[in-house]
């Protein structure tokens, strides 16, 4: 199975992906808020919509990066360096502006589940940070000289989706407790920001240092 990265790469990707998944943002806000207002089924539908959006992002990113790799390995390396710079910016932005998380409990008129699903898909697809993140994030874990790079890009993208499943299901199931905990302790959200910034910054610096050493 040449498309499966080696253990060290997979472990690094798993760490970075988990930090991204648990860091509060627009998708998490939508899922938790709809769960609190409309119930768990609504939350799970929103989570399914976000997963659908992530699948689209990862497949398109993998295809686009694969085409770039096939046509110009040098341009692929430039993308990785620019991606490292983008990861540094994400780290800085997380510390400066914090997470986008706003939750309200209560009741609201019934909303069709298909409408909630569509809203969740659009929230994910139309988030420019998500688009840029996947285009610049996935290439950090493959080498331009790797003949199996295309398969690894697809594998990592779908692996990210699989990693998100238990976290998303668990988050919706415990939405009330999560909401109360976050409201009681804003420092918890801030801790996620610093964790996210630390991991993204570390990957970026590691990549830039590797390029400088070449």
Key attributes of the depicted protein:
214 residues; mainly alpha; 9 helices
Explain this structure:
By secondary structure, the chain is mainly alpha-helical. Helices cover 80% and strands 0% of the residues. It contains 9 helices and no strands. The longest helix has 32 residues, at 40-71. The two termini are 29 Å apart.
Largest sheet: none
Please tally the helical runs, counting DSSP H or I stretches of 4 or more residues: 9
Number of strands: 0
Radius of gyration: 18 Å
Oligomer: single chain
Bin the helical content: over 70%
Give a summary of the structure in a few sentences.
With 214 residues, this protein is an all-alpha fold. Helix content is 80%, strand content 0%.
What does the secondary structure layout of this molecule look like, with pairings?
Elements: H1 7-22, H2 26-38, H3 40-71, H4 73-97, H5 113-125, H6 128-137, H7 149-173, H8 175-184, H9 186-213
């Amino acid at each position: 199975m040449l498309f499966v990265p080696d253990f060290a790469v997979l472990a690094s990707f798993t760490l970075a992906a988990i930090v991204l998944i648990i860091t509060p943002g627009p998708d998490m806000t939508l899922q938790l808020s709809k769960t609190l207002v409309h119930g768990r089924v609504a939350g799970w539908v929103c989570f399914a919509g976000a997963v659908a959006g992530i699948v689209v992002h990862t497949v398109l990113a993998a295809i686009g990066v694969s085409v770039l790799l096939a046509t110009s390995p040098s341009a692929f390396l430039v993308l990785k360096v620019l991606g490292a710079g983008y990861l540094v910016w994400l780290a800085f932005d997380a510390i400066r502006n914090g997470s986008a998380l706003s939750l309200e409990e209560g009741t609201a008129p019934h909303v069709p589940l298909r409408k909630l699903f569509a809203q969740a898909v659009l929230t994910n697809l139309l988030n420019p940070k998500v688009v840029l993140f996947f285009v610049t994030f996935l290439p950090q874990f493959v080498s331009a000289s790797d003949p199996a790079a295309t398969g690894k890009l697809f594998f990592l993208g779908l692996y990210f989706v699989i990693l998100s499943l238990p976290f998303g299901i668990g988050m919706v199931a415990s939405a009330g407790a999560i909401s109360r905990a976050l409201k009681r302790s804003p420092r918890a959200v801030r801790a996620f920001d610093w964790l996210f910034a630390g991991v993204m910054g570390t990957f970026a610096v590691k990549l830039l240092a590797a390029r400088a050493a070449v």
